Amino acid sequence: MKAEFTACREIPDTESKGRVHTSAASVAVFPEAEDFDIVINDNDLKIDVFRSGGAAVRM
Asked: Which pLDDT band, with edges at 50, 70 and 90, does 40 fall under?
């Protein structure tokens, strides 16, 4: 496996208060796996669904 991570910090021209904006990206490359068959029993699955409510908070 090969993995890389990079982050970029900048103050955009459109930023009037001088705040630093940070962007990040990561990439992982795995070798190609061989095909194989699996069986998943529905009783072995647990699925939870959540939804947020209210206004988003920005800090």
From this structure: very high
Beta bridge partners of 25: 6
Q: 44 φ, ψ to 5°?
A: -90, -5
Identify the burial level of 40 via C-beta atoms within 10 angstroms of its C-beta, where 0-12 means exposed, 13-18 middle and 19 or more buried: exposed
What is the torsional sign of CA 47, 53, 56, 59?
Answer: negative
* Confidence (pTM): 0.37
The Cβ of residue 36 has, within 10 Å, a number of other Cβ atoms equal to: 5
The pair of structure tokens assigned to 29 is 């490359």
Separation of alpha carbons 8 and 46, rounded Å: 38
